[in-house]
Amino acid sequence: MDENNHEVSERYYKAGSAVELTCLATQVEEPGDYVTWRHGDTPLSKGISINASLGTGVVVTTLTVDHALKQHSGNYTCAVGSLASATVSVHILNGKTGYIV
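Request: output the structure for the sequence above.
Response:
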């Protein structure tokens, strides 16, 4: 999700800037329905903050990269157990940030 709570499939960031990706999962009923993040095929555990509210069936997780480098480009996927997943393609640019419309 972006800062306006819209689902996105691509994000562009300037090298050295902070990258923040948010995953919102609704209708989560079981504690086993945990959210995981991957960069490509690599599971991630550092730089992730979790704000979980299982009582209301909503889990929000945020992945943060403080100083993005070119190697942080690629596909990031958040998954809720085996129930659902979403992927966003992150592009780290050497120049200005921009969006393709």
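Residues 37 and 47 are 10 Å apart (CA to CA).
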